[in-house]
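Quick one - inputs below.
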Amino acid sequence: NAGVTQTPKFQVLKTGQSMTLQCAQDMNHEYMSWYRQDPGMGLRLIHYSVGAGITDQGEVPNGYNVSRSTTEDFPLRLLSAAPSQTSVYFCASSSYNEQFFGPGTRLTVL
Amino acid sequence: GESVGLHLPTLSVQEGDNSIINCAYSNSASDYFIWYKQESGKGPQFIIDIRSNMDKRQGQRVTVLLNKTVKHLSLQIAATQPGDSAVYFCAENMRNSGNTPLVFGKGTRLSVIA
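Output:
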């Protein structure tokens, strides 16, 4: 089992560019989520999904889109990157009892 | 790389001593609580969880205490080791309401002095 994988590990974008952060899990978990982590702010939920074809907004969804076409994959799309989206992004998947996090993507928007 | 900044509460503990990390949660309807450990440059890692029908749960070298009256959660680490140095987060949600998203606290940095 690879667990939760995220790509890329690092990314630098210019303001206005778009990109997709990839997340995949091989544990057959129904529940997946995306968080961003900023200094002193802990982890804040962006979007989550309770199963293929179902997504919902979290605490800070603006500027991000998600889709869940398969159980395994949950990509996060930045439509038009802004400096305020500079952060570390974590994807997670969970069974009923435990949430597993990926290693994170460090994104810088110039 | 450091993903949390300079404004986190910090707890410094001598190696071998016990550590107590505290967390005040916000939602009185929360019924499930988790402690995570995050080492520098890595994602959060599950340590221990507790449900609201319990007030104490023990793992290997760790104990979680839950006081629902004052909405307080603590993590006790026995015989703290240098490898315990990390940022610790508490998280809460409402499992009895259909596995709602986790809400994380801001974290506490634990520094172990050798």
